[in-house]
Amino acid sequence: MANRVVLGVSAGIAVYKACELLRLFTESGHSVRVVPTRDALRFVGEPTWAALSGNPVSAEVWDSVEEVPHVRIGQSADLLVVAPATADILAKAAHGLASDLLTNTLLTARCPVVFAPAMHTEMWEHPATQANVATLRARGAIVIEPAVGRLTGADSGKGRLPDPAAIFQVCRSVLAGAGADLAGRRVVVSAGGTREAIDPVRFIGNRSSGLQGYALARVAAARGASVTLVAANVSLPDPAGVDVVRVESALQLRDAVIDAVADADAVVMAAAVADFRPVAPRLTKIKKTGDEPEAIHLTKNPDILAELGERRRAGEKSPKVIVGFAAETDDVLANGQAKLARKGCDLLVVNQVGENLAFGTPDNAATVLVAGGEAVEIPRGPKDDLAGVVWDLIAARLV
Q1: Which of 3, 55, 104, 206 is catalytic?
Q2: Residue pLDDT, tens place only, 24-74
Q3: Where is this region: Phosphopantothenate--cysteine ligase (predicted)?
Q4: Among 32, 175, 180, 281, whose CB has the most other CB atoms within 10 angstroms?
């Protein structure tokens, strides 16, 4: 059965992007009712929304009064998403105002509600807006962090509407039943693969695409968490509502993670971190001379996951839940159990890697080893599904 989605649209220049979000919902089989504000129709008109959704469109509580739309639309929805959500609509929602069909619908909805804000940086950072966002989140609504980028005119900064595909992924996770069980939690996720410079042209690296780490960050944001994603050499669009810190090497990733986990509730180390790095990277490109290549001397990189465990055992301020990943090619569970014992983490996600397995693929399978002996099998499926199981296990330990 198709989910019934209400797409609320408030008045901002990013309204045109909501047309793409609408298409993503309808092409995925969802039934969508668009509820714009009056001023939103000055940007994109009623015929466009009706044609794309296949459903009637109105901003007024007085249209089709016999159907009592100001009550029925919200009552019958499985998801209500407001994109773009202006400072005005966030304020009205936080204070329970009901001045038009959209604000009435927000009051009557008992389904999950997602807001995708879009506004100028000064408006987003204003204490009134931040207080309204905090109020909505405290009530269980998911307010996605706006993206950083070009705004109206020549302005740039935080306040840009996240990419419609990223908003859709958040909504997809919400519709899957995740809820907002991570609301109020701060989490850190690492993703991608580090690169250790040999010279300005060459590096030691690995095949990690960052897809699983990005799925973990995306699902955590959809479940209400404040997420910092430390991304190593990833060419993926930023997940909606996630603060992304970009790094290249293992040393940079270590510093970024240690800084981010200072006040985090959980950390998930999904990045593939190089075990070794060249002792002395060349400042100029190494030339091919003679018959034998020049030896490259390596040294160990810091073991970030083990360091996190050691810091917690030493009584330093650390996340309550520490999760590691182990990519193995053989003796998968035996190697995973040994790693779990060495690292001192709470959960270790062990997956087999190789040709068409894990790295760069849209799906994944894993076994989650739990400190204490339990093992949770996750069958092959979309990486978002694996991320959901991991966050289920984490959320249970944060209670």
Answers
A1: 206
A2: 999 999 999 999 999 999 999 999 999 999 999 988 776 766 665 678 888
A3: 187-399
A4: 32
Quick one: which of 235, 251, 269 has its CA closest to 197? 251
Quick one: tokens of 271? 């990045």
Query: pTM for this one?
Result: 0.75
Does the annotation count 132 as an active-site position? no
pLDDT reading at 396 higher than 80: yes
Single-letter code of the amino acid located at 14: A
The tokens for 223 are: 């479940």
Are 272 and 179 in contact by the 8 Å Cβ rule? The answer is no
Alpha helices in 101-162 (DSSP H): 101-108, 121-125, 127-138
Question: Comparing C-alpha atoms, which of 334, 399, 323, 398 is closest to residue 368?
Answer: 323
275 is in an annotated binding site: yes
Q: Is 305 known to sit in a ligand binding site?
A: yes
Do the Cβ atoms of 52 and 25 come closer than 8 Å?
no
The H or E element that residue 159 is part of is strand 156-160
* 128 backbone dihedrals φ, ψ, rounded to 5°: -65, -45
21 labeled binding residue: no
Same domain for 166 and 200, yes or no, is no
* 369 carries a ligand binding annotation: no
Same-domain status, 202 and 125: no
Q: How far apart are CA 274 and CA 196, in angstroms?
A: 7
Collapsed DSSP state (helix, strand, coil) of residue 114: strand
Torsions phi, psi for 234 (to 5 deg): -110, 135
Minimal CA–CA distance to 364: which of 333, 386, 336?
A: 386
Residues 293 and 392 in one domain: yes
Task: Please spell the DSSP secondary structure of 196-251, one letter per residue.
Answer: EESSSS-EE-----SHHHHHHHHHHHHTT-EEEEEEES--SPPPTTEEEEEE-SHH
For residue 52, the domain's CATH number is: 3.40.50.1950
Query: Can you say how many angstroms the Cα of residue 232 is from the centroid of all Cα atoms in its chain?
Result: 16
